[in-house]
Amino acid sequence: MSYGDWQGQSGLTFSSNLRNIWTPDAIQEAQCCAQYAAALLPLPEGLARWSAFDEERFLAEAAARMDLVPEFYRSSWDTRFRPSR
Amino acid sequence: MQRDNPIAPLPVMVRYLAIFRRTFAFTADSADPSTPERVLLGGYLADALHNVPDMLWRYNEEASYQTPRDLEVWITQGTPHRLLDHGASESVLAECRRIVGISPAAAAEELHLHSDLANVDLAPRERLSGYLKVFYRALEPLSVCAE
């Protein structure tokens, strides 16, 4: 069961989710989420301290992480922010 | 001439940026199959926070739906209660409260800002808008496991 498969299911609780979570698809998607989150980690501080933010470096490092992530998770990144190569 | 939409006041903006930072840091460190509760907490946090970017960008205390106050209550009180109702452990609840209950002083520290926010240098509007949309899109796929 993937994260997406959980949509539309009613009555799932934290405990029942835990019983379903570690299928191969779910593990892969959790790892994708972790990559996406790691890519975005510098951004909150960067938005608050813009002059000190190296946006070019951020974009390059984030793009490298996004290359590890399946299309579903990286499409919005690709369309707006992927640096040209 | 079109007027710019009002964005959130600086203390509100800084606090939520710090919450995003803690959420991203937590999620980045939560893909370990041996700690499934952490993955689920990431999903609950994403579900709670995914409307925040739009609130920050179109700040309106008088909005007819999901006012800043509504979101604040939902995130800081509703989410821990929801986790408790769904059987989360005390350690998961504590982690949730650490992330969403961040104080103004801790939020400034999280982003390496002065406590009076005097050194805030917010991104230009077009960048702020674009990156807040990235936050929204990042949180959407994460949030489905909490539905």
Q: What does the model show?
A:
The complex is a heterodimer of chains A (85) and B (147). Helices cover 67% and strands 0% of the residues of chain A. Chain A has one domain (3-81). Chain A has helices spanning 3-6, 14-20, 24-40, 43-48, 55-66, 71-81. Chain B has one domain (10-146). Helices cover 64% and strands 0% of the residues of chain B. Chain B is built from seven helices and no strands. The longest helix of chain B is centred in the first third of the chain and has 19 residues, at 10-28. The model of chain B has no long low-confidence stretch (mean pLDDT 89). At the A-B interface, helix 1, helix 2, helix 3, helix 4 and helix 6 of A face helix 1, helix 2 and helix 7 of B.
Average per-residue pLDDT of chain B, rounded, comes to 89
Write down the secondary-structure element order of chain A: HHHHHH
The domain tally of chain B reads 1
**Biggest interface:** A-B, 41 and 50 residues
User: Could you give the count of β-strands of chain B?
Assistant: 0
Query: Looking at the structure, what is the overall shape of chain A?
Result: elongated
How many beta-strand elements of chain A?
A: 0
Radius of gyration of chain B: 16 Å
Amino-to-carboxy terminus distance of chain A: 36 Å
Total of domains of chain A: 1
Oligomer: heterodimer
How large is the radius of gyration of chain A? 16 Å
| Uncertain residue ranges of chain A | 1-12
Number of discrete helical segments of chain B: 7
Q: Which band does the percent of strand residues of chain B land in?
A: under 5%
Helical residues, percent of chain A: 55-70%
Main beta-sheet strand count, sense and barrel state of chain B: none
Which percent range describes the beta-strand content of chain A?
Answer: under 5%
> What is the structural class of chain B?
mainly alpha
